[in-house]
Amino acid sequence: MGRRRIPENYPVNPPWPPPSDLAAGVEPPLMENRDDFVREAVRQFGDEEYFAAERWNAARRLLSDGDLDGLVRGAGAGAVVSRALTAWLLTPREAFIPEENRLAAYLPQALPVGHNQTISAPYMVSRMTAALNPGSEDRVLEIGTGSGYQAAMLAPLSAHVRTVEYVGPLASSAGRILESLAERRPWLKQIRRRTGNGYMGWEEGAPYDRIIVTCAIDHIPQALTDQLAPGGILILPLGERRVQRLTALRRRLPDEETPPDSSWSPLNEDLKMDFTDVYRNGTRVVFVPFVH
């Protein structure tokens, strides 16, 4: 992917989404340069200066590489970027990584979090968050809590995030991390968690406007498509165990007979579902296989 020139004072225009675009209790960051951001992160959230600066620096790379762009093209694309950027800057990635690997938190790579699971690389979490782009009142379901990082990234954007993890000890660890961070990031208190089989989704909260699967899977679970609302989007790394494509599925609205635009292709006419490649260019990705 080509790199784009980012100005020194890099926040996009508009730099931050209005509070009405964010989940209840979330204040958008009001910082226009790194020093201000680091100072505010330390004061408001108790973050360490080093990691706050690394988060800011990583945001420049994500912007340059287009990893905050999302699926929207044309009008509205800038708003998607600024919302994803807000979620990134408000979420301390280092807190979700075991201490022995914490200094590598903002390097462009996946890292182990125990139980043969990983936290995805910054560019992957950011790209999936931007592609999902939930509204503040959208119902969101995550399959594969892992360390809790992806759910934490979604919480500033939606007040209705649910997450399911199959591995009990990992789910417990994620819960402890989220609860500790929620003392200063109250929007994290709104995340609902469950330990269970992600193939089955979470029927009690359905239908969902957004569903995200954060582990490799070779098919689309019917329970997840059944729980997807009209107009809803499902994102998952779809393919074989060793390599996948980051795929977005969309259920058409009742009055839609064709895909919403040329970037989407029909997948299943009976279900009125369409699909697209999140990367738009066939880029292959590698995720830890689905555990159930």
Task: Furnish the topology, listing elements before pairings.
Blueprint (H helix, E strand, L loop, with lengths): L33 H12 L3 H17 L11 H14 L20 E4 L2 E3 L2 H11 L6 E5 L5 H6 L5 E6 L2 H14 L10 E4 L12 E6 L8 H5 L1 E12 L4 E8 L13 E4 L4 E5 L6 E2 L7
Parallel strand pairs: 3-4, 3-6, 4-5, 6-7
Antiparallel strand pairs: 1-2, 7-8, 8-10, 8-11, 9-10
Helix pairs in contact: 1-2, 2-3
Number of helical segments with 4 or more residues: 7
Mean pLDDT: 91
- List segments where confidence is low: pLDDT < 50 over at least 5 consecutive residues: none
Shape: globular
- Return the CATH topology: Rossmann fold
DSSP strand tally: 11
**Which second-level CATH architecture applies?**
3-Layer(aba) Sandwich
Describe the structure in your own words:
With 292 residues, this protein is α/β, with parallel strands linked by helices. The protein has one domain: Rossmann fold (3-Layer(aba) Sandwich). It is built from 7 helices and 11 strands. Helix 1 (34-45) packs across helix 2 (49-65) and helix 2 runs antiparallel to helix 3. The protein is globular and about 55 Å long.
List key phrases describing it.
single chain, 292 residues, 11 strands, nine-stranded mixed β-sheet, globular, alpha/beta, Rossmann fold
Would you kindly provide a brief summary of this structure?
The protein has 292 residues and is an alpha/beta fold.
